[in-house]
Amino acid sequence: MSKQHLGHTARKRFGQNFLHDPYIIDQIVSAINPQKGQNVVEIGPGLGAITEPVCELIDKLTVVELDRDLAQRLRTHPFIASKLNIVEQDALKFDFSELFSEENPLRVFGNLPYNISTPLMFHLFSFAHKVQDMHFMLQKEVVNRLAASPGNKNYGRLSVMAQYHCQIMPVIHVPPGAFNPPPKVDSAVVRLIPHKVRPVAVKSEEVLNRVCAQAFNQRRKTIRNSLKESVSEAQLLSLDINPELRAENLSLAQFGQIADLAFSVQE
Ligand code: SAM
């Protein structure tokens, strides 16, 4: 298949793989299930593959698109332009709290550019408290990482932080042929529902994130070594956590305990 899609040349640097399989698009729209009056935002609308059917169901949709040409095409779209609030910006830098409303929690969806999907997830987690749900097309491997449990090879900082913020539900598997150009990897749509009450209470999310980064950046080391800048061996033992363990063996609850101890030490 060519890199041309509906008269646009796909730009690799913007992670452009356009959906063209009507069956998959239909399944995604059904999974999102947008309703009139809801506060909905799409990241990376591109040529409108999901945007158009969503606009058939609701009256207003905010879209965040970095590619100037695609944003311009949407501005002049014959059918849906009047329903769109077009934000021509980098979603990684966009302050999603600008879209918060008192009455309506935000619903977020997108077939995300794979080259920035992990940092984008971390950026979105910082707004999760005001978000009703998120539906994302991601590399299948990233969905596996989001949902991984301790002991699994995919378990990492993304798993811990995602599960701290959200309930994770894989929805559909999507083969490369559903896109133009087809990506080299399999994809999947995942639903993330931010917890109303977090499964673990921590004193500082920032410290939790830092402790996870330290532990997983040196994932082959024991936590005695990888976490020595945050907590001592004696402190790990005081929590009844074996210092010989590796990051991949620690549960979210244990990361929470370590983060709280590191927070108290830092205070
Ligand atoms: N939604 C369309 C579809 O499903 O066919 C396009 C999906 S394509 C995988 C990713 C989209 O995200 C492209 O439109 C691309 O221009 C846009 N994009 C890439 N980087 C972005 C960023 N940093 N902020 C906002 N949009 C971005």
TrEMBL record:
Any matching Pfam family: RrnaAD
Domain Ribosomal RNA adenine methylase transferase N-terminal as annotated: residue spans: 24-196
Entry EC number(s): 2.1.1.182
Keywords: Cytoplasm, Methyltransferase, RNA-binding, rRNA processing, S-adenosyl-L-methionine, Transferase
Keyword rRNA processing annotated: yes
InterPro entries: KsgA/Erm, rRNA_Ade_diMease-like_C, rRNA_Ade_Mease_Trfase_CS, rRNA_Ade_methylase_Trfase_N, rRNA_adenine_dimethylase, SAM-dependent_MTases_sf
Superkingdom per UniProt: Bacteria
Gene3D superfamilies assigned to the protein according to its UniProt record, in alphabetical order: Ribosomal RNA adenine dimethylase-like, domain 2, Vaccinia Virus protein VP39
Residue numbers binding S-adenosyl-L-methionine: N17, L19, G44, E65, D90, N111
Cellular component terms per the entry's GO annotation: cytosol
Subcellular location: Cytoplasm
Main location: cytoplasm
Keyword Transcription in record: no
Stated role: Specifically dimethylates two adjacent adenosines (A1518 and A1519) in the loop of a conserved hairpin near the 3'-end of 16S rRNA in the 30S particle. May play a critical role in biogenesis of 30S subunits.
PANTHER family, alphabetized: DIMETHYLADENOSINE TRANSFERASE, DIMETHYLADENOSINE TRANSFERASE-RELATED
Family of this protein: Belongs to the class I-like SAM-binding methyltransferase superfamily. rRNA adenine N(6)-methyltransferase family. RsmA subfamily.
Protein name: Ribosomal RNA small subunit methyltransferase A
High-level lineage: Bacteria, Pseudomonadati, Pseudomonadota, Gammaproteobacteria, Alteromonadales
Name of the gene encoding the protein in the UniProt record: rsmA
